[in-house]
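Escalation from tier 1.

The customer reports that the assembly of two entities below gives different structure tokens on two consecutive runs. Tier 1 could not reproduce it. I'm attaching the input and our single run for tier 2 to review.
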Amino acid sequence: MMTNQMLKIERILAVSAAAAVFAAGTSWARAPFTDEELAEQKAALVESIALGYDLWHGSRADMTTNGLACGNCHPDTAASNPQTFPKYMTMYGKVIPFREMVNWCIENPQAGARLDVNGDDMTAMEAYAFYLHRGKEITPGLASEQTTPIVVEYGAGYARTPTGVGVDTKP
Amino acid sequence: MSDIVDHSRRQFLSFAGKAGLTTLVAQAVGINLGVVDIVRAQTGKRGVEPFRFAIISDAHLYSMPDHKFDQQLADAVAQVNAMTPLPDFVLFGGDVAQNGTEDQLVKGNKILAGLKMPLKLIPGEHDWYLDMGDAWRGLFGDETWSFNHKGVHFIGLNSILVRDFWTEAGMTPLERMTVMEMLESPIPGPWGVHEKQLEWLANDVKDLAPDTPVVIFTHSPLWDYYPRWNFQTSDAPEIREILSKFDNVMSYHGHVHQTLYNRIGNMSSVAALGTAWPWPYPPVELAFPETRMNRADPSIATDGMGTQVIDLSGSFEGLVQYKPFEDSLTPFMRDGFKV
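Tier 1 run:
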């Protein structure tokens, strides 16, 4: 059984350790990611964004039965407003996340089959849409206004390997 | 210079011979869904006999039978046919087809054949890049044209010409078309009317007096709106320069699938609603933001789509009225606006 004295010592040690961490300023639960690790993580994200870009523009056949893709109405993911979710959507009568809105568009305007909300494809769709809204203010619940994505200067909007054709030549 | 022709090119209706006639024609012009009627009965100082024309644009028909866009184009035709009074003619703003196939263009021609009045078209990129306009020309004629109607000089240009990105890359026609179908495609770059049409335009207007009322019709806007989505025409500055001698030029265009107005110098610019889907407004400031429509509600299948009608007065003033299928307009836009 722990005595009062032992508890007191333990508290002193805990406070001392916390103070040491605070004083050092660079102490972490683990070492910071190396440049190589960060590059790998960024590459994984870009791979997901690239998959989302392709899906957004019609690469998966079962997402449509009438030929429409997300990009028909949402070029550069414009007016998809990912940063405004979760929010109330009238077609559901409740607050929904962005991925459910993606599935609504797939099932209704595109008359296709909904994606697994926990699957890699849905994550990729989110990755593309959110990446093109990076830096935008997060405003959950904003339901009535169209917002715009970032201005895409060239290429696909992310660090895609250039095709070597046309104006898509910058990294 | 061509006379306006009907959709089938079988019946030629020469309006040119009527241009400038001082004919007292009382036209009951319906404004605001027929709530207000005004009577216009005189020819203007520039010799314009008041009339109206309608614009249908951007049908983007797919090949599937009974596709919802087929009905939306048919609804646009019915809407224009029900206008009181009837427009003298209809301009189609490009993109009959989605993938440029002949069956899509033929389907569009068949639906548009339901119009009670003559039709004149210019092409969009979706009509063009599968066969470089062969099927479109076979159905609808030349893509560069002008005609006179009741004192107004109408011009149509093909504004979706891009430099050749496909030959060196070894692309098939289908691959070329697929590249062009994507609004934000990073490959084709900005499009325009190119040198040959600029020369044609300069020659077409060289003998016209500065007070001639001019309407120019293109698929894309004649100003730099948002070049990434080709909401632009690369040689629009040259077009505006050629037309700068005129007192007043009206530009009407498709492609942007939204309500929009702009003005540069002597040229006003008005966008057309599409019948297929609305585009979002891009991330740029607008000079006239009050001409935007409401954000389209995706749960209302045809929100943000429709047609438009323009009444031209004797003094070559235009009353632009958007006719959306749904309640898509802000209060500012519901009564129309003058250009």
